[in-house]
Amino acid sequence: MGYACPVCETPQSDGEHLANHLAFAAILGDDEHESWLDEYAPGWNEDGPDELAPRITEYADEEEYPQVFEDTVHDHGHGHDHGHGNGGHGGHGLEDELQQAGGYGRDAAMGADAQRIMAEARQMTEQMMNDESEGSEDDDANGTDSAQDENE
Length: 152
Known about the structure:
Elements: E1 2-4, E2 11-12, H1 15-27, H2 31-40, H3 49-57, E3 61-63, H4 94-100, H5 112-142, H6 146-151
Antiparallel strand pairs: 1-2, 1-3
Helix pairs in contact: 1-2, 1-3
């Protein structure tokens, strides 16, 4: 069993996923999702998914959605991962779901605040990845292992 989004009817597997869906859509600038949350779950932006889920599921229609697991799907002998994982943009990720739910995602028009937030998030992610790779290069050059350093 799952829930249909009370705004756009996008299927969600459980209350936590529904909470994330509603909040992400609202944060990314969807006025309908934000208005719904403001009306039915005041203070929603201060809650995490665990706290928000029970507050919103009472207003969502319970639906039965077929759930497909990776081990039950034939890979058609492709031998590749369809872009899932680090840096991949293919497949069935959050952006794809948001795009289907009402025109969000990488290609959607965003407001100035959302564009600023996304640019900052990308920059922080790139910096984090650079810092991690520099740290492992330093360890390799010194002949040390970060796990070994932690044990000393």
